[in-house]
Amino acid sequence: MRALVVDDSRAMRKIIAGALRKLGYETVEAADGAEALKVLGEGPLPDLATVDWNMPVMDGLTFVTQVRANREYRALTLMMVTTEAEHGQIVRALAAGAHEYLIKPFTVEALEEKLSLLGLLPEVSQA
Amino acid sequence: MTELIEDLEPDYVEDEALAQIVEQMWASYFAHVEFLLPSFEPHDIDGEILCASVTISGARPGIVTVSVEKGVASPLAAALLQEDDDALPAEDVYDALGEVANIVGGNIKALVPDAGPLGLPVVSTAKPLHGSSGRLAARLDANWRGQWLTFEVWLAGAGDTTPQNTGQEH
């Protein structure tokens, strides 16, 4: 399986990508929503995108909205991974089309649980 | 009268909440290195500092800062990135410190009623100004590898403007 990690912090991209690789994912990275849209446009479509909320150039909510507006990306599962912890923000993100929401700081176990709920745990990590 | 009203406003963020957030962050991302040891006493940081901060907008604007002695910033970033700190470029050090402020700030924001967007992290060589109305809502001093880290939450009274990030930005 393949995941796109979208976060403006290199440190956080490394943490998230590292956790996903441990779970059996191949990863690609983007530093903001606009760069992530470019990665999607170049293909192939990943199975999952983890999306930070607060980023320069294009924030995560705008990215989610734009992805959901494009039928070509219907198969892409979107998970917000953000410090935005208020209930209202979670509702906004899910209403915009995010499938799951993970609040930073998170553990690898919490990420694994969310992926399991989404049916997106690679077979290698379920063995 | 204003002071009286301000005094009666509930404390949305307290030292204990800040300590819990920092503890949770440490357990999530720094569990492989030495413990962060909280102190009950404030400890000023000697020497040059690096300060990462994020602003909180909304009805009760504020700012969350993480200050470290410059020399500890690189090992701290290396610990977060799980890399050798000898080869870590300054850009990665600022990025990592900024992310620490972002994580703490985001979780603090969730405790503040009617909060608006969180600002992007700013890293500077000086602490930001909090404005005359800013009040220190919570502070945590903690020791890591013999060096002090200071976490602070400043919240303004209702109707005050958002404190500004100042200093030399990186």
Please, could you describe this protein's structure?
The complex is a heterodimer of chains A (127) and B (170). Chain A is an alpha/beta fold and 127 residues long. Chain A is built from six helices and five strands. In chain A, strand 3 (48-51), helix 3 and strand 4 (77-82) form a beta-alpha-beta unit. The longest helix of chain A has 13 residues, at 10-22. Chain A starts with a strand and ends with a helix. Chain B has 170 residues and is an alpha+beta fold. Chain B has a single domain (2-155), classed as CheC-like (Chemotaxis protein chec, 3-Layer(aba) Sandwich). Chain B has four helices and seven strands, in the order ααβββααββββ. In chain B, helix 2 (15-29) packs across helix 4 and helix 3 packs across helix 4.
The radius of gyration over CA of chain A amounts to 13 Å
Strand order of the largest sheet of chain A: 2-1-3-4-5
**CATH topology label of chain B:** Chemotaxis protein chec
The count of helical stretches of chain A stands at 6
H/E topology pattern of chain A: EHEHEHEHEHH
Can you name the CATH architecture of chain B?
Answer: 3-Layer(aba) Sandwich
Number of strands of chain B: 7
Average pLDDT taken over every residue of chain B: 85
Overall strand count of chain A: 5
The largest β sheet of chain A comes out as: 5 strands, parallel
Helix content of chain B: 25-40%
Instruction: Give the name of the CATH superfamily of chain B.
Output: CheC-like
CATH level 3 topology of chain A: Rossmann fold
Q: Tally the helices of chain B: what do you get?
A: 4
Structure summarized in a few sentences:
The complex is a heterodimer of chains A (127) and B (170). Chain A has 127 residues and is an alpha/beta fold. Chain A contains six helices and five strands; from the N terminus they run βαβαβαβαβαα.
